[in-house]
Automatic annotation (TrEMBL):
This is Carboxypeptidase regulatory-like domain-containing protein. It comes from the Bacteria. SUPFAM superfamilies: Starch-binding domain-like. It comes from Hymenobacter glacieicola. InterPro entries: Carb-bd-like_fold (IPR013784). Residues 43-62 are annotated as: Disordered.
Length: 62
């Protein structure tokens, strides 16, 4: 039993918190713009905005 629990305890110590970047794309009147592609600078990681212009993306860890 002790041998089976040890790997679980070690695995949890290496867990990294997840970072989520959120935002909203708006026009000059403050209305959200749907379907805009949002990319993280210097990467290919991205997402598209929702109907209200909001978006969220989780950067990949290196």
């Amino acid at each position: 039993m002790y041998v089976l629990l040890f790997p679980l305890a070690v695995g949890q110590s290496y867990a990294q918190p997840t970072t989520t970047i959120t935002g909203r794309v708006t026009d000059e009147t403050g209305s959200g713009i749907p379907g805009v592609t949002v990319l993280l600078k210097g990467s290919a990681t991205g997402t598209a905005t929702r109907p209200d212009g909001s978006c969220s993306v989780q950067p990949r860890r290196r």
